[in-house]
Amino acid sequence: MIELSAAQVASATGGRPVAAVDATVTGPVVVDSRLVEEGSLFVALPGEHADGADFAAGAVTDGAALILANRELAGSDGQPLPVVVVDDVQAALGDLARYVMARARELNPALQVVAITGSVGKTTTKDLIGQLLTEGRDGFGGETIVPVGSFNNEIGLPLSVLKVTATTQYADLEMGADRPGDIGHLARIAPPNIGIVLAVGTAHMEGFGSREAIADAKAEMLAELLPGGVAVLNADDHRVAAMTSRIADGRRVVTFGRAETADICAENVSLDPLGRASFSLCVHGGVIPDVTEPQRHAVHLQIVGEHHVSNALAAASAAILAGIPIDVVAARLSAARIVSAHRMAVTERLDGITVIDDAYNANPESMRAALQAVATVAARDRRSVAVLGEMLELGDNALAAHDEIGRLAVRLNIGLLLVVGPGARHIFEGAQQEGSWGDEAVYVDDVDAARIQLAARLRPGDVVLVKASNGTRLWQLGDDLADGMLSPAASSTVSSTAETHTIEGEEVNAA
C-alpha cells in the first residue's frame, strides 16, 4: 500500500475528514475489521446483515489509522473517531483505488497491469499469470500483485489495486461483471497495459439477456487499454476474435488459441492418463519485437482438463508480452499448480478415490469442460461420479442449460450422476430423457442428503467430480471428499426409502 494522508484520502474520494488531521494510512486497506493491522484504513461498508460502521471503534482500537464511512462516528468514550465521511462508501473505495493506481504509475512508470475477463477461466488464468510473472529463482519476473480467489468485482478489485506499492512491477487483476458497465468501471480504476478476453459464454445470462450483450460487456475492458497497450484475444471464440475491430489506434492485438493461425498457439495437444495436457507452445514471428521466426517450446501442464490449454495460452501470451522469455514461460507453465480453492483441485486419496473439486462456480461452458475432464481421467477402468448442483443466474436459459448437462453426462458415460437441489433437477431429468439409467442417476434435495447418498454409493477407485455455482454451497462436499470424511461404505446399496425418494419424484421446480 502506498502511504496516504487523511487529506489525500479525502481528496481522492470527495470526502470530508473528521478528527483525522494527523492520520496517515501506512497499513493495508481492509473491509473486514478482523483483518485490521497497525496503520490500516478500515472501509466501513454498509451491508444487508451488518453495518461496517458498527465495527469502526474496535478497528481503531486494533490499530486502524483511519475509517472510510458514510457518517461521523464516535468511540465508546464519546470521542470522535478519525473518519473520512463520504456519500457512498463502495464508490469511494473505487475512487481511492483509481487514485492509488495513478499515483503508483507516477512513482513507477514500469508498472504493468494485466487484466483478465471472460465468461470462464478468469481465476485459473489469473493464477497462472501470477506464477509466470512473480520473481523466481530463474531471475525473471518481479514483485506481482495476485489476489487469491475471485476478487473481481467492485469491492474485490479495488482492494487488490490498493495493495500496489511503488515497487510493484505487475498487477495481475481479474475483472467480472453482473451487468453492463461493470467491467468498464473496473477497467477505469486500473486501465490495463495488457487486456485479455478469454471467452464469451452464458454465465450471468440473467443480467445480460444475450450472448451479444455479454460480448459487449467483456469488450468494455478493451476500451480502457492504455496507449501502447495490447489486447490479447481468443482466436477460437468468434465473438472474442471479432473484438479486434473495437481496438483503438495506438494499441495492438495479439491472438491466442488452438488454431494454427493464432499468434500464440498450441500444437500437438495430447492428454496423459490423468487428463493433463501437453503441447508445443508456438509463438509466431512478430509477436516479440525483432523476432521474425516461430519459437516453439514444450509444455506439460500439471492441472487437469484439456480446457486449460486455452487458459494456459492466455497466460503465456500475457507473460511473453510482459517481457518474460518464452522458454521461461514454458518451464513455469509446466510447473504451475492450482492456487485458488475449488477450481479443478485434484486430491488423490489413499483409498484410490480421485476427487476433482470444481465447485467454486459453474456455467454451461465450465460444466461441460469439467464433465469431459472427469470422463477422461476415469477412462475405461474406473467409475466416473459427477455430483452436480445448480448453475445460477442463467435466466430464461436455465431449464434448457441444465437439461443439456444431464444429457451430456449420459453421452459421456458418467457412471453415477448425483444431482443436488431443486434448481438443478433438470440435469437429472435430462439424463433420464437421454437414456434409461435406473439408479445410475440420483436426485436429492440438499447437500445433507447428497452426503448420505455419497457415503452409501462411493467405491474405492472412483473418480468424483463436484461442480456447481458457489451459492449452492456444494463446495462443502468437495471439502468433505478431499478430507476423507466421506468414504466408501461396506455396502454399495442405499435404503429403499432413499432410493424411492431420489429416483421416482417427478415434481419440476422452476430454475
Question: How would you describe this structure to a colleague?
Answer:
With 511 residues, the protein is an alpha/beta fold. The protein has 17 helices and 22 strands. Strands 9-10-8-11-12-13-14-15-16 form a nine-stranded mixed beta sheet. A six-stranded mixed beta sheet has the order 17-18-22-19-20-21, with helices on both faces. α4 (122-133) packs across α10, α10 (308-321) runs antiparallel to α11 and α12 (364-378) packs parallel to α13. The two termini are 43 Å apart.
Number of helices: 17
Provide the low-confidence segments as ranges.
Answer: 490-511
* Rounded mean pLDDT score: 91
State the shape.
globular
Count of extended strands: 22
Radius of gyration, Cα only, in angstroms?
24 Å
Distance between the termini: 43 Å
Largest sheet: 9 strands, mixed
Strand percentage:
15-25%
Which class best fits the helix and strand makeup? alpha/beta
Q: Tell me roughly what share of residues is in helical segments.
A: 25-40%
Main sheet strand line-up: 9-10-8-11-12-13-14-15-16
